[in-house]
Design a protein that fits this description.
It is built from twelve helices and nine strands. Helix 6 packs across helix 7, helix 6 packs across helix 9 and helix 10 packs parallel to helix 11. The strands form two sheets. It has a seven-stranded mixed sheet with strand order 5-4-3-6-7-9-8, sandwiched between helices. A two-stranded antiparallel sheet has the order 1-2. The protein is α/β, with parallel strands linked by helices. It folds into two domains: about 190 residues, Rossmann fold (3-Layer(aba) Sandwich), CATH 3.40.50.150; about 80 residues, DNA polymerase, domain 1 (Orthogonal Bundle).
């Protein structure tokens, strides 16, 4: 079986440009800074960042996926290092040490298209969905014991699925009658049999698969922790760029930037000086027509960019 899966990096040039330049051109001394690629994936963003750095520059990458870490081993550049952990681990970096932080929150094509990983309802495979296959429980293992109300809450909260209740009841009924679900196609068929209506062009299992993946990897919690850590590690003038692919992620990023892009007043001390804003919002960018045509998976991507102000 062919085990090579291609991956097209979303917003490649736009993301790296956001770290190194503004409307007036390259940022002063940007090539000498330390940068963080929070999700190495298959290294598209990292390799372009390295091409922009001087000999003094540094790039630190993070990834939970052992296969991504193995791919990173092919980069022998001494300016580059990779850490096998979630990007919330960037909180361990020294304060105000980072010139630019990029987080691409998408699941990479090699993860989606490899049936063994269990991310896709399009392929027969074990119902796994873990980003880090060396630790934690898989979706199948969780569903062996999860109660109806737990499953309902996960599907509703992380999948925004209006049929969360019936799907959860069907999963538990199936477990009681014939044993737990263990494969992606079993889950996809169960959802299809339960959900009788769906948006045109969307597989009935789309929202359920999204919900289970987000839950089993604690993706939203990791994102919130990493965003908070960005305020600690970014130096004044440092850039934050986050690429999200669905509304739950984008809402968290948008609200985080908005919250820290205004002065905060303490209502209990109306005459006290306000806490100065920590970020300046620099806008959002979406893939252009050509990129979406060449890579349909990019169509839902939104990148939000902000600059660290005072520390």
């Amino acid at each position: 079986m062919d085990t090579t899966w291609n991956h097209a990096t979303v917003l490649l040039n736009e993301a790296v440009d956001a770290l190194f330049s503004n409307a007036k051109g390259a940022l002063p001394d940007a090539e000498n800074g330390t940068y963080v690629d929070g999700t190495f994936g298959r290294g598209g963003h990292s390799r372009l960042i390295l091409s922009r750095l001087s000999t003094l520059g540094r790039l630190i990458a993070f990834d939970r996926d052992p296969q991504a870490v193995a791919e990173a081993a092919s980069i022998t550049d001494p300016r580059f290092s990779i850490r096998h952990e979630a990007f919330s681990g960037l909180a361990q970096l020294p304060a105000a040490s980072v010139s630019g932080l990029l987080m691409d929150l998408g699941v990479s094509s090699p993860q989606i298209d490899n049936p063994v990983r269990g991310f896709s309802f399009r392929f027969e495979g074990p119902l796994d969905m873990r980003m880090d296959t060396t630790r934690g429980e898989s979706v199948a293992q969780w569903l062996e014991t999860a109660e109806v109300n737990q499953i309902t809450e996960v599907i509703r909260e992380y999948g925004e699925e209006r049929f969360a209740g019936p799907i959860a009841k069907a999963i538990v009924a199936r477990r009681q009658e014939r044993g737990p679900i263990s494969t992606t196609t079993e889950l996809a068929q169960l959802v299809a049999d339960t959900v009788k209506t769906r948006e045109q062009g969307q597989n009935p299992a789309t929202r359920t698969f999204q919900a289970f993946r987000i839950f089993i990897n604690a993706e939203l919690e990791e994102l919130q922790q990493a965003l908070e850590a960005s305020l600690h590690v970014l130096q004044p003038g440092g850039r934050l760029a986050v690429i999200s692919f669905h509304s739950l992620e984008d809402r968290i990023v948008k609200q985080f930037i908005a919250k820290h892009s205004r002065d905060e007043y303490d209502r209990r001390a109306p005459f006290a000086a306000p806490k100065v804003m920590k970020l300046e919002a620099l806008g959002r960018i979406k893939p252009g027509t050509d990129e979406v045509r060449g890579n349909p998976r990019s169509r839902s991507a939104i990148m939000r960019v902000a600059m660290r102000t005072a520390v």
